[in-house]
């Protein structure tokens, strides 16, 4: 069962990794940062956030360091956020402080996160690996398998939001 589970999970993460570049391709800095209203999340922030969530959760699951720190991405992004920030619970002002307009930085970070993800998935080889409890703060406690599905659900939703926003931003000029 672990082999098919691994293949399905890899496919889910690969799909996001393969589609994100086309969603960001050709966008201007203004388009990456445009907020459709005062509280809306911009495309660039969503791309950063989906990568941060994946980095944070997969590194924790794998018992390894996040590439946000070890790969120097925190320094390259130079955001006014705590290094532990992944975007959850940020205020509208914090989201508004996001100022990264270079898609190569967003995609470079996502590439590094994808490599970390594949490394973590390589370490999951038995059903027991997927059944391992990784978070006891929930009832029922979260297994590695549930955490992986949760991350895929989250990042695919954000990828869809990026696609939708891209369409709106392009039509509005």
Q: Could you report the average pLDDT, rounded to the nearest whole number?
A: 96
How far apart are the first and last residues' alpha carbons, in Å? 49 Å
Tell me the series of helices and strands, N- to C-terminal. HHHHHHHHEEH
Query: How many helices does DSSP assign?
Result: 9
Structural class, by secondary structure, is mainly alpha
Overall shape: globular
State the major sheet: 2 strands, antiparallel
State the helicity in percent bands. 55-70%
Indicate the multimeric state.
single chain
Strand content: under 5%
Rounded to an integer in angstroms, the radius of gyration calculated over CA atoms is: 16 Å
Name the poorly predicted regions.
none
Strand order of the largest sheet: 1-2
Number of strands: 2
Structure, described:
The chain is 67% helix and 3% strand. With 173 residues, the chain is mainly α. A hairpin with a 6-residue loop joins strand 1 and strand 2. Helix 1 (2-24) packs antiparallel against helix 7 (103-122) and helix 3 packs antiparallel against helix 9 (144-172). The longest helix is centred in the last third of the chain and has 29 residues, at 144-172. The mean pLDDT is 96.
């Amino acid at each position: 069962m672990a082999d098919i589970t691994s293949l399905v999970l890899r496919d889910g993460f690969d799909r996001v990794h393969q589609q994100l570049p086309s969603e960001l391709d050709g966008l201007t800095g203004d388009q990456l940062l445009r907020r459709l209203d005062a509280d809306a999340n911009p495309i660039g922030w969503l791309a950063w956030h989906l990568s941060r969530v994946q980095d944070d959760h997969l590194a924790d699951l794998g018992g390894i360091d996040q590439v946000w720190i070890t790969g120097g991405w925190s320094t390259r992004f130079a955001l006014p956020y705590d290094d532990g920030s992944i975007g959850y619970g940020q205020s509208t002002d914090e989201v508004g402080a996001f100022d990264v307009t270079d898609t190569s930085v967003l995609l470079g970070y996502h590439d590094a996160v994808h490599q970390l993800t594949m490394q973590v998935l390589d370490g999951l080889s038995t059903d027991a690996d997927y059944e391992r409890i990784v978070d006891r703060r929930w009832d029922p406690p979260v297994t590695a398998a549930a955490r992986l599905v949760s991350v895929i659900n989250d990042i695919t939703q954000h990828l869809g939001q990026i696609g939708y926003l891209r369409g709106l931003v392009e039509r509005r000029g």
